[in-house]
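hey so u asked for the seq, here:
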Amino acid sequence: METQESMEREINLMELFWELLLGWRKIICFAVIFAILLGGIKYGKDMIAYRSHQNIDVEKIESNLTTEEQQQLQKAKSLMNRLKNYIDYQKNSVLIQMNPYEKPILELQYYIKSDYIMNYTKDNQRDYTDDIVMMYYEYITSGELKQNVINEVDLPIDEKVFSELIAIPTEVETVVTAVISITIAYPDKNKLNEISESIKAQLTAKESEFQQIGSHTLMLISESQNTVVDKNLVDQQTTLAKNINDCMTQLDTAKTDLTEQQLLLLDLEEKGTSNITIAVPQPTPSIKYMLLGAVLGIFFVCMWITCKMLFTAKLQTAEEIRNLYNIRLLGEITVSTNKKHFLSIIDKKILEAKNRKKKKLSMEQQIKLVSVNVALSCKQKEINSIYITGSEYENIDVRILDRIRRELSEQGIQVKEGGNIFYDAESLRQGTEIGTILFIEQKAQSIYDEISNELNLAKEQNNYILGAIVLI
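ran it, structure tokens below
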């Protein structure tokens, strides 16, 4: 007879699926372990970082810096402060935030008419016209007028910001012409009118006060409101944006060369604090890392179960007896275990789902059916005695063997039994004398190579292999 050659196993994906489901305890256990492990590692690192930031001595850190490191830090601080000033100006300046292509402005033009008359017949009196014009110029550019306008119109800006919204001629132009042109810009046209009225009221009040310098008349010769395109504002906005971008690039480049201590000092400078302690929120367990750990745990168990099925040396399914060894599968017997597992009802439900297409039989019914199948096979071959063995025969439940022997005896089949014929010489002799061998193997117990060795030895001795029964 031909001996058993090398075999190639095919993995049943459905069996793998049910094996993964039946491994739910391992999956849950490793998911919890990895979640705690990964979350604990992350929490531990966060706690180390948290404790390292407590009671930091800034002066000591600064004293430990080299001259070159101090220069690098000072350069980074200078860039950071410059960037902060640019951004603050961009954020707070009403002028910069205005649309330069639709800039609303209001223009007021005043003429200062002096009452001074040159009298050549008397002593000459000094011409006070220039002094009056200068007084108006100084008042308009002063903070008093601007602050009064802010208060009266209720503008949400300060005097510095408002100064950008008022444009007047230079001091020389004003004195020469005795004409003062005031240009006011503001995005809200209603507020623009209120600003104009406030300025006019204040200048009218100052007219009587400035009479002490010399008799004169302040005349409003024109008032107009327009929407203009301010090319200078376009250039100003473009330059500011470029300065911010350049400064950010330079600061990022400078930070790449800084040490951890330098970055810490720079962070203190950015926060505007001189405290020697840094308030860092106390870390808490990371849900994200715990979930990641659970996923890794599940993946690890699934890979473990898969690899165990792929590389196992033990019988995985009863069908492998037929597919791998080309011998008859005379039946399967489901072995019930008395071992109680935690939440065994879940295993029961999974097995019910797995075997939902199979009719459920008790162990006694399965043994009786298998025994009848064996007896019929013997009668077809006119065999009245058989030898029962298996690669793990000594580990089979004695009660199952007794029931099989009893059932076969009732069917008129004489039964002898023994251990693994590949290792037990007496079993080999008895089996060969009888000439017909029935193998009983166990799922997850019988080893592929041991089964092959037994089958090859039985064939070499010209024994007739009746088939195999698998305990699952």
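The CA atoms of residues 422 and 457 lie 7 Å apart. The chain is about 55% helix and 15% strand.
lmk if thats what u needed
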